[in-house]
Specification:
Length: about 160
C-alpha cells in the first residue's frame, strides 16, 4: 500500500488532543469517573503509533517534502503557502479552516499568486432537524455560519 504523507496543523481541545499527546489508558483512568459524571457514554483513545507528533511553528517552514496534504487551522494560513510549495508533491492539497471571510480573501489572494489550481471555498453550515414520528423537517432556527474551508491543489511544476 502506498504511504500517504500528511501535515495536520490543528489544535483541538478535549479528547481530540489526547491522541496528539499520546495519552495512554493509565492517564485517563483517574479522570474516568469525572467523564462519566458529565455524561460521556464512551471515550475512544486512539493509538498514535502511526503518527509522528512534532511541536514546531509552521509559519517558519515545513521540513517534510512530498506531502499529500497540509491541513491548517490557524489565523494566517497565507503565511504557509510559500512553504507548502516545497513541501507538497504535485497534486497535493492545501486545506485551511478559517472563521471569517476576510481571512479567506487574504488566503485566496496568496493562492492565486502561487501555482495552485482548483481552488475552492466552502461555507460550513449547521442545520438541525426536527424528527418526531411523521413530522420530519428542518428546525425553524439554525446556526447559519460556522466557518469556511478553502482548499487548492498544487499544480505540477514545469520541467
Amino acid at each position: 500500500m502506498a504511504r500517504i504523507e500528511i501535515v495536520d496543523q490543528t489544535l483541538r481541545d478535549g479528547q481530540q488532543s489526547w491522541w496528539g499527546m499520546r495519552m495512554r489508558l493509565g492517564h485517563a483512568l483517574p479522570i474516568a469517573p469525572d467523564l462519566d459524571r458529565v455524561g460521556y457514554h464512551a471515550v475512544d483513545i486512539a493509538g498514535s503509533s502511526l503518527l509522528e507528533v512534532q511541536v514546531r511553528d509552521v509559519y517558519e517552514g515545513i521540513e517534510e517534502h512530498d506531502l499529500d496534504r497540509i491541513a491548517l487551522d490557524l489565523p494566517e494560513p497565507w503565511r504557509v503557502v510559500k512553504h507548502a510549495l516545497d513541501a507538497l508533491r504535485p497534486g497535493g492539497i492545501l486545506l485551511a479552516y478559517l472563521p471569517t471571510i476576510l481571512q479567506v480573501g487574504r488566503l485566496r489572494e496568496e493562492l492565486a499568486n502561487a501555482p495552485f489550481g482548483m481552488v475552492e471555498t466552502l461555507e460550513v453550515l449547521q442545520r438541525g432537524w426536527h424528527v418526531e414520528g411523521q413530522s420530519i423537517r428542518p428546525d425553524h432556527r439554525m446556526v447559519a455560519h460556522t466557518g469556511f474551508l478553502t482548499h487548492g491543489r498544487l499544480l505540477a511544476r514545469e520541467t
